[in-house]
Design brief:
Layout: H1 2-29, E1 34-41, E2 47-53, E3 56-62, E4 65-70, E5 75-77, E6 87-89, H2 94-104, E7 114-117, E8 126-130, E9 136-140, H3 144-148, H4 156-162, E10 167-172, E11 175-180
Parallel strand pairs: 3-6, 6-7, 9-10
Antiparallel strand pairs: 1-2, 3-4, 4-5, 7-8, 8-9, 10-11
């Protein structure tokens, strides 16, 4: 009977520690600057927490302030910018940038490139993505995940093999219009 009590105590302790490590991980993952967390609790009660910071995917400059958008969609003020990252151009407010961030991080990594904010009277969220091969995508900010996300059905590779360079992909409502870019 004495062994049963110790077995139950050990099982209770293990369950409690697993639950605690899970709760710690869940709490840390709520922070959009965190990509992954691993919590280890040993029998001595020591806690090891390994945190991986979310990677930046694009940066922007609004007035004299630089911001990074990371892989989780967080907008973070930063004074050191990695200029190898794509850049957001012509965003005038932090609200506009946050709206972009809420969608941009969800699109396929192959399409993440320089972005130009080109609002129009008929659509104040119109965005222009300039791709590495010279093609351009026009899309509403709030349609990015739906039309360009990994589960969107837009086959980037197939379209880029058919339209190698100099094409405009314009997402207009539920339609995709493809036209050659006119050079002056």
């Amino acid at each position: 009977m004495h062994k049963d009590i110790w077995s139950q105590l050990l099982l209770s302790w293990l369950f409690f520690e697993m639950l605690n490590s899970y709760l710690i991980e869940e709490d840390l993952l709520k922070n959009k600057q965190v990509s992954s967390v691993d919590v280890k609790i040993n029998f001595n009660g020591n806690i090891d927490i390994y945190v991986k910071e979310a990677e930046p995917v694009v940066y922007a400059k609004i007035e004299k302030t630089y911001y990074l958008i990371n892989e989780n969609g967080a907008v973070i003020e930063d004074n050191q910018v990695d200029e190898s990252l794509p850049m957001c151009h012509d965003y005038k407010s932090l609200d506009e940038l946050k709206e972009l961030a809420s969608e941009f991080y969800k699109i396929s990594a192959q399409i993440r490139n320089d972005i130009i904010y080109i609002p129009k009277k008929y659509d104040t969220t119109l965005t222009k993505l300039i791709l590495n091969n010279g093609n351009i995508i026009h899309i509403r900010t709030k349609d990015m995940e739906k039309r360009l996300g990994d589960k969107s059905g837009f086959d980037y590779e197939a379209n880029m093999s058919s339209y190698k360079t100099g094409y405009l992909f314009s997402f207009e409502g539920m339609y995709l219009r493809i036209s050659q870019i006119k050079t002056d």
